[in-house]
Amino acid sequence: MSHSLPALRRRASAQVEAAAQPDRSRGPVPVITVQRLVKSYGVGEAAVHALAGPLDAGGRPLGVDLSIHQGDFVAIMGSSGSGKSTLMNILGCLDAPTSGRYLLDGIDVGGLDEHQLSLVRNRKIGFIFQSFNLVPRTTAVAQVELPLAYAGVKSAERRRRAMAALSMVGLADRANHRPNELSGGQQQRVAVARALVSAPAMLLADEPTGNLDTRSTDDVLAIVDRLNASGRTVVLITHEDEVARHAKRVVRLVDGRVKSDERQAPVTGPPPALLDPVTFAEHSLHAQTGVQG
Amino acid sequence: MNPLQTLRFAVGGLAANKVRSGLTMLGILIGVAAVILLLAVGNGSEQAVVNSIDALGTNSLTVTSGTSSAASTATTIQPLTVADAKALANTTQAPDITGVAPEVTTSQTAIYNGVSHSVSSVIGTYPAYFEASNSKVTTGDYFSDDDVLNSRKVCVIGATTASDLFGTASPIGKVITLGGTPFTVVGELATKGTSTSSFNNPDDTIIAPLPTVQNAFTGFGSLSQILVEAKSAADTTDATNEITTILMGTHGISSSSALDFQVSSQTSLLATRSSSTQTLTVLLGAVAAISLLVGGIGITNIMLVTVTERTREIGIRKAIGAPKGVIMGQFLAESTLLSLIGGGLGVVAALIGSHFSIVGIKPVIIPASVYGSFGIAVAIGLFFGSYPANRAASLRPIDALRHE
Lengths: 293, 404
Known about the structure:
The complex is a heterodimer. By secondary structure, chain A is of the alpha/beta class.
């Protein structure tokens, strides 16, 4: 497993150089650089562009461009069919784009084979899914150990790091519980622990609070805020404004193109919720929308 | 991922669905047990036939006078003599021969106490005859070399002869009149009971020292035949060759196509029983192999169901960075574990089952069938598991995750 890593690194550093060139003026190296990304289903006349970006004069999609920097907290918003899940799947290396370039932490993902992709998913990305996606019949600590096991970390070290991650999400006392013995919020916190245990370049959360009640939503988002405050890059997909409020930057997608790109807080520094907690809490939308849930 | 970790995942996967795993193992268990047991039954029946032929004396050879076929170029036929028998008894020239019994045969009427009985075979021979023809006495004793040398008028009688002449009384020590000559009965043979017909009943016989019978009935001329005992059933071919060589010398024959005697054995009988029981063994083995194959297909079926059922889990594992090889390894380990445990239990079941006799046959386990069927079961697990495992590993993570 490890034999291909040096090759991957060499390649990565070469691509960091290439990717960094146009961005030198903007300071930090982007974790994610997406250039002219198009994802279509079907071919020819019947083709449907899930991700298209602006169209050129001939009606051909030019693709989506997006750049996310180290330490940023980006919420990608949009209604269903806007292409946000497609974008998320491509960013997570679960799906391949039809055309365009995707550099993750300096690595051109498009040029990787199946095995290298699994390494990238293992080392660079921490996933948090809407439906938790825990492995059934497996204890919380074993869940969290899983990415480390695939990375070839030794058993004792694995256990130590998994317990540390579980403590971070406040579930150290639930380490030996199986998913069916945990509440939804607890399951999602296990998923967060699993996502961060391998210290990935970014956390990728796809509607992480979509299946949670408001209290658990707050718990999970508080953890995500803390992780971002400690420097972890977070990309979060949501359709809820209340969730998007936590992000430093909000990108809205409509019909496969970027409609707006607003910054709510600087890239460096804590996320909005920790920047001014009192004001943030006062403007919570839960008062109107969340109580009955 | 080390092998131990893969194995732990596999055990976890199997333990998650105990009934299904158990039933799949049962398929392999029955397959392996059937192969071992049915081959053991086939082998057991073969052994039984060998034993019953052994009881007749598979290692005995009969030398008779005369040509074996019309093609023989022998011009004159020299009778077999006691000198021929003595030549055969030479252990340096015939190392594979352990016993030689020259025989003369006649038919006489035996009378005891006014009861008359016609004995179809009165045999004059040496004590080696009893060993070579597998004749054992139940009461009394065999006559000895000393009896032969002194031409004593003693005899050993067959079970049928004894019951016809003496009823239930013991014949030992009684004197019967055989063709006008009195003989003292020294032993009674155990019943052979192989032929139920009164024609050529092996139990209706009287055996007496050779010179006594020659003196009383046949005269000191030619022998009826020479019974030769080979060291073992496997040595009969060598023994036949030795007999042929020696008798060609004593009869002064130079060409093997001009023999004036023939050597016959139970080899033909052995060949017949081998072919019949081997057919049985092959048939039983084939039936069992089919059941093992069905068990293997059961593994494929269950692993396919498992893969389908766990598609989502595979997607999760892939999303958090499981390489293709690890997923493949996990499912292969599961199917191999199924066949390994199933096969192991099958061997145990067969070993237990072999202690009972099946349709009257005591199974005799062939060790190669144990290793063979166990090995095949494990290979089946690998082979039939590889398709579902490969299918699981080749799933695209996005498709696997979307699977409901």
